[in-house]
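Q: How do we represent a protein-ligand complex in a form that can be generated cell by cell?
A: Start from the inputs.
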Amino acid sequence: MVGTYQKEYEESIREPERFWGKAAREIQWYKPFEKVLDDSRKPFYRWFVGGELNTCFNALDYHVLSGRGNQLAIIYDSPVTNQLKKMTYGELLDGVSRFAGLLRSFGVEKGDRVIIYMPMIPEAVVAMLACARIGAIHSVVFGGFAPNELAIRIDDAKPKLVVSASCGIEGKKLIPYKPLLDKAIGISNFKPEKCIIYQREQYQGTLIQGRDFDWEKEMVHASPVDCVTISSTDPLYILYTSGTTGKPKGVVRDNGGHAVALKWTMKYLYGVEPGDVFWAASDVGWVVGHSYIVYGPLLYGCSTVVYEGKPVGTPDAGAFWRVISEHKVKVLFTAPTAIRAIKREDPEGELLRQYDLSHFKYLFLAGERLDPDTYYWASRLLNRPVVDHWWQTETGWAIVGNCMGLDPLPIKAGSPTKPMPGYEVHILDSNGKILPAGAEGIVTIKLPLPPGTLLTLWQEDEKFKQTYLDMFPGYYFTGDGGYIDEDGYVYIMGRVDDVINVAGHRLSTGAMEEVIAKHPDVAECAVVGRKDEFKGQLPLGFVVLKSNVQRDHDEIKKELVQMVRDQIGAVASFKEVVIVPRLPKTRSGKILRGTIRKIVDGEIYTVPPTIDDPAILKEIEEALKTIRVESLYHFFNLFNKNGI
Ligand code: COA
Ligand code: AMP
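Then emit the C-alpha cells for the protein with coenzyme A bound:
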C-alpha cells in the first residue's frame, strides 16, 4: 500500500500539479510536458501542455516492448454466438497497426473524425485503438441507437469514414446494423466518404460499391503503421451524450490527461495490478466501455474482457459468475440494473455456487444510483466489497468512489463514499452558496477539473461554458442533486435536469419530447422519468391531443411508442403514454415537469408559487394521495377544472 486516501486526496487538492505530475511519470511521453496545469485561459484548463505522446503506444506497443507481448490483452466471450477468442498484446498490436494502416490508405489523417458503430466484438476495440494510433478522433455510437440518432452524430462530427459491422446480436435477437447505417447516411446532411464493414457470419450486409469496403478483405493487404506523435491536449475521442435537448453533447477527451488519469485509477481506485483480468460488463458505446473496457485496462497492462451477452438469458443468470470463474476475473464493473436482473432470476444466488470465484476481489457498480437493497443483496451473496462509484460521460472516470488500492474506507450503503483525488465536490444552493453537511442541493465540482475530464464540447466552446460552467462561476455543474454527510460521504440523489437513466443508459426526455411533438395529432407533451424497481427509471409520456382529434387513443399511443423506438432506439424503453386534456404549467407557460415527476413517483412536492389559490391546492393534495400512474388522467382533469 502506498498511502492513505486522506493523504493522497489532500495533496491532490492542495498541490494538484505535484500530484498529477507524479502520476504522469507512469506514462511514456515522446516529449515531456512543459507545464502540468495550464490555467491561463480560464475556465478552459489544459493538462500536461507541451507534452507529446500516443495513447495507442501506451496501451499496446509499450507493453509489447516491455515483455508483455504474450500476455492476453482481450478475452472475447460471446455466449450469443458461442465464441471464445483470445488475443495477446502482440496479436492486438499487429491487428491495430494494420487497421491503422488501412485507415491511412483510405485517406484518414490526424484530426479526421471516424465514427464507429459496432456491437461488442474485438474489432470495435481494434478500430478505436487504430484511430488513436494515427491521431484520428473516434466517435463511437452505441449500437442501440436508431438511424436518426446516428445521423445526428454524423452531421455533428463530420466523419471522413465510418467503421461498422453487418449486425449485432442482442440476447436472442439479430440486429442488422448495416441497413441502419445506410438509413442514417441517407438521412444525414453530411456524407462520409467511405465505410469499412466487418461482415459477421450471422448476417452479411450489402456493400455499396465505391463507398463500402469489407474489413477482412481489405485487411489482407493492409500494411502496418507506427504511432504518430500527438499533443497531450489534442482530442482522442468525441463521445456524444444525452443532454436536455434532442441534440446530444459531444464530449471531447484529450490524450495526455486521459492516459494519466485512467492509469492512476486502475491501481488506486480499482486495486488491480498489470496482468490481472479486468471486466467492465458495459458496451464500448458508453463511457464505461471507453474508459474501462478499452483504455484503462490496456494502459495498465491488464487483460480486458469483451463480453457480448447479457447478465441474464445468455443463457441464464449465472452468466456473470461463469465469466468471472472461467477467465479468473479480479474486478467486475457493471451497472446496478445488471445485478437487479440477476437477483430477479436467481434470488438465492444458487447459480453462483456452481462457480469458483476465488480470483474475484471487487464488484464495482456505477451508471445509476445503487439502491441499498441491491447493495446488501450483492455484498451478502458475494462476500466481497461491493463498491459504488459515481461518475459521468463528461468526467470519464469516477468523481466519488472508494479507493481499493489505497486504504478502503468503510462503506455506507447509499453513498458512493468520498470524492476521488482531484475532485473538490461542493453542494450548492440555487444561488451558489455552499450548503452545510446534510443539506441537499446541487452537486458541483470546484474548478479546475482533474486530468481526463472533458476539454469542451465538440466545436462548441460557448455551449460547454453555458451548460456546465456559467451557472455557478468557478464550479462545474454536474446536473445531479445530492448532499454530503457529516463524515464527508457524498450521496447522489438523481438528476436535477431532464436527463434520465434507464437500465444504466443515459437518455434525454427532451429528445423524446421532440419526437412525440412531431406526431400530427399531438398538441403538446411532456416526458418524465419515473422510478422503476428494475431499470432504475422508465420514461413516461404525457400527451395533449389537438382539439379536433377523434381517433382511438390506443392507436395514437402505439404510434408514439413506435416513433420513439424508430427515431431514438429500443434502448429508450419508451412504452407508456398517458393522454391528458392539459398539462400543468406555470402562469408563464412553463410545463411543471419537476412537479409531474414527483407526483408520478408519489413523492412529497412543493407547490409552485404561481399556483396561489389555497382551495385548489388542498383539493389537489387530496387527489394526489390516491393517484397512481394509471389514474393520473384524473389528476390532470382536476387541474383543468380548477383552471390552472
Ligand atoms: N443494440 C440494439 N438494441 C439494443 C442494444 C444494442 N446494443 N442494447 C439494448 N438494445 C435494445 C434491447 O434489445 C431492448 O429491446 P426490446 O425493447 O426490443 O426488448 C431495448 O433496447 C431495451 O434494452 P435494455 O434497457 O438493455 O433492456 P433489456 O431488458 O434488454 O436488458 C438488462 C436489461 C438489465 C439486462 C440490460 O439493460 C443490462 O445489461 N444493463 C446493464 C447496463 C449497462 O450495461 N449499462 C452501461 C453503463 S455501465
Ligand atoms: P453517464 O454519463 O451515462 O455515465 O451518466 C451519468 C449520470 O448517471 C450521472 O450524472 C448520475 O445521474 C448517474 N450516475 C452514474 N453513476 C452513479 C452512481 N454511482 N450513483 C448515482 N447516480 C449515478
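Residues 89-105 form the longest helix (17 residues). The chain is about 30% helix and 25% strand.
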